[in-house]
Amino acid sequence: MAGAAEVVLGFERIEKVYRAGWRRGVHALRGVTLTVGAGEAVALLGHNGAGKTTLMKLALGLLRPTRGGGRLLGRPLGDRVARRAVGFQPEQPYLYPFLSARETLELLGHLNGLRGAPLRRRVGEAAERLGLEPALDTQVRRLSRGWLQRLALAGALMPDPRLLLLDEPLSGLDPQARLGVKDLIRELRAEGRTLLFNSHVLPDVEQVADRVAVLRGGELVACGSLDDLLSRDGGGYELELGGPVPALVAAWPGAERLWSRPEAGRSFWRFPPLGRQEQQRLLGGILAGGGEIVSFAARREGLEAFFSRLMTAPRREEAA
Amino acid sequence: MTAILSLARHTLLDALRERLLHTLGVFLLILFGASRLLEPLALGEGRRVTLDLGLALVSLSGLLLVLFLGSRALQREIERRTILLLLARPIRRAEFLAGKYLGMLAVTGIALCGMLALLGLVLWASGHGLTAGLLAVGYFAMLELAILCAWSLALTGAAGPAAAGAALIALFVAGRLAPSLLETAAMLPPAAAALAGALFRMLPRLDLCAAGFEAAHGATLPAQAFLWAGLHALLYCTALLLLALLILRRREFA
């Protein structure tokens, strides 16, 4: 969690085992500890069945933890009062086919205690944000998947939430609508709302999330800011040099020249991960040797590559 | 309260828009038509035949309606996962249940009024005249439907739609035969009699609600009959709804 922001949602060593009759239970979550601070956008990543949706349902009290616990807006997980300030968009747009889009939003507003003018105003605002106005009086059964997804998102906005739990908000949308939803997520963050969302569309996650939490087989295998995670493991550094190449650079263990343009006096180098002192020694040495540092930056791995590496790494028990 | 009324309205809208009542209306029209066809064979007992057939149809249709409504009110919400949308909102599970129950009562109430009006129309059109007893029929039938709705919610919360439906039909039959079953139990060996007696005492006393049939045929019912049946339905429904709530509160929605 960034800084000492108020914890809006926290899970503490939470475990969930699904049991069906006398059969051995299925471990959906194994000791997950995760906090989401106020104003953060945190993405939950993981394959299907990794426990992402289970985590959201535990927050809402739709499921009870087998062990462990947590807090939702300062109250126990699933607390009814806390849920007043939580918007939820389920994975599939589970909506009533016989209602119109407007009636759906009104029903959700009613369940949040809204009525009369405030309810109508909120319906109007939510519909406007999602561009739903043309479909407001259409029955849900006649709406396409993209419209349904928008309606489900508008439903999540009905309580004017402090925390939004969005289960796959970007799935089933055309590219234009996806852009719209990404913009919406950014807007919601800018308004100070907190978001926890699932997505399999990793490039989109990279654009909107502050932090990601990766679940694998119910275990939290990585959690942190994108900068930290993507430059942490084997990322190394990239250096663009102007002028002559100091001997220090060429002789640096693990340094690799990726390209050079002698006519322009430029070269581009890749370095293995460096500690703070090593960085200072390298950069100081270049400047002392008459070199010119055009750029020096941590080499970021793409989120897809990072995710794929995490998912294919041997699991703890397998490694043992 | 907003949430309860909103859920009740939602249940009513579901039934109306999914043409549940329309289908029932067509079904009833066909069957009332059949009663008109049977009348010439009734040898002067036309009024009795029409009334008995009509009342039996009202009762049967009410049961069918509760079976449909019960499966939609809870089971279909769970199957289609629309329940996630509702229970994620800041409502208590008790409010959810109360809303669904009130909605079911509203639908069955409207259907019952419609069926009795239709029966009255058939009687009037056949020249048999209207009977004030139909109002009593309405009262007792509504009590019976209220008990069946409560049973339906408790059963569909605990079992699948087929098992819940079968159990509801069994309860309907056993509830109508409750006094006979109690008498039969008394004839069993003492241990078995105690067990069967205890079991049968848990049955809904739908025989109390059958008093409406006598009223329709012109019998004057004492005020106690109305009072006891009402009190029994009230207490029985309260107990059943508490049971349904207990089941629903324990339930998880994966």
Structural write-up:
The complex is a heterodimer of chains A (320) and B (254). With 320 residues, chain A is α/β, with parallel strands linked by helices. Chain A folds into 3 domains: 7-85 and 161-223, P-loop containing nucleotide triphosphate hydrolases (Rossmann fold), CATH 3.40.50; 97-152, no CATH class; 237-298, Alpha-Beta Plaits (2-Layer Sandwich), CATH 3.30.70. Chain A has helices at residues 52-60, 80-83, 101-111, 116-130, 145-157, 175-190, 202-208, 226-232, 247-251, 276-288, 303-312, 316-319, and strands at 7-18, 26-37, 41-45, 67-72, 75-76, 86-89, 163-167, 194-198, 211-216, 219-225, 237-242, 256-261, 266-271, 292-298. Chain B is an all-alpha fold and 254 residues long. Chain B contains 12 helices and no strands. The longest helix of chain B has 34 residues, at 46-79. The radius of gyration of chain B is 20 Å and the shape is globular. The mean pLDDT of chain B is 84. Chain A binds chain B through residues 18, 54, 57, 60-64, 80-81, 83-84, 86, 88, 90, 92, 94-96, 98-99, 103, 107-108, 110-113, 115, 155, 159, and chain B through 2-3, 6-7, 10, 13-14, 17-18, 80-82, 84-92, 252-254.
List the helices and strands and how they pair.
The complex is a heterodimer of chains A (320) and B (254).
Chain A: E1 7-18, E2 26-37, E3 41-45, H1 52-60, E4 67-72, E5 75-76, H2 80-83, E6 86-89, H3 101-111, H4 116-130, H5 145-157, E7 163-167, H6 175-190, E8 194-198, H7 202-208, E9 211-216, E10 219-225, H8 226-232, E11 237-242, H9 247-251, E12 256-261, E13 266-271, H10 276-288, E14 292-298, H11 303-312, H12 316-319
Parallel strand pairs in A: 3-8, 3-9, 6-7, 7-8
Antiparallel strand pairs in A: 1-2, 1-4, 4-5, 9-10, 11-13, 11-14, 12-13
Helix pairs in contact in A: 3-4, 4-5
Chain B: H1 2-17, H2 20-38, H3 46-79, H4 82-87, H5 93-125, H6 133-158, H7 161-176, H8 178-186, H9 190-201, H10 206-209, H11 211-216, H12 223-250
